[in-house]
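Hi C.,

You asked whether I'd gotten around to modeling the 271-residue construct. I have! Everything is below, sequence then structure, no commentary in between.
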Amino acid sequence: MTGAEHSTAPDAGQPDGAGTRPGDRWEWDAATYNRIADPHVRWGDDVLARLRLTGAERVLDAGCGPGRVTERLLARLPAGRVLGLDRSPAMLREAYRRLTPARAGGRLFLVCADLGAPLPLRRPVDAVLSTATFHWVRDHEALFGHLAAVLRPGGQLVAQCGGAGNIATVVEALRQTGERWAGPWTFATAEETRARLERAGFRKVETWLNPEPTPLAAGGPLEAYLETVCLGAHLDRLPEAERRPFVEAVAARLPRAEIDYVRLNIVAERA
């Protein structure tokens, strides 16, 4: 990246990441995610409601995915701008298509970059919004430092991600299949997240956990959700022929057709 803000072309390549390891997720089935991610959009509405806006701010959507929550953010910024950042080119291509009017009007810029590395923004933003993303970043100390570096003094950070205890039944089902890899996630507690944010230069920090059990239809819908949202990094490590049986084996070991989400909520201000 050059450091210039710009709308990423649909064929944008993979960003250079710092601190990544084998098993980190670079790419997604963005079209399927876009179709089935209604829970994430619902959580996004809750997070967006906590963001104080006049309508003219510059806001970073950190982990914008296919742009469904970004679209709602843009509606609250009629005189502002949004920087939609994601490290998945496929997700950005979906956002590129969905948000064409905002891009054409100069209200949206899409950036392919990794939250685990310093962020390529030319000037500070007024606020950072993020939904269902931070748990995909392994080093939260570095993550919050990178966000603080691009947020103006007094600017808001409002976010939600997977927290301690998130998808515990999925993790147990993985263990029962014989899978020994712990997964690509960082599911932090509210207390350790508060301490990390304060060390990164945030104040007025509020963090809390809340359960969000999400029932799904058994069979195909549950398996499609597991494959696209929860197990993608595990499937990336398997030969193609083993992926479908693996998803079915995990689904069969869940106690019910439900994902036992636990959400970590963050509200903070840059000191």
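If it helps when you're writing up: The first strand starts at residue 58 and ends at 62.

Thanks,
B.
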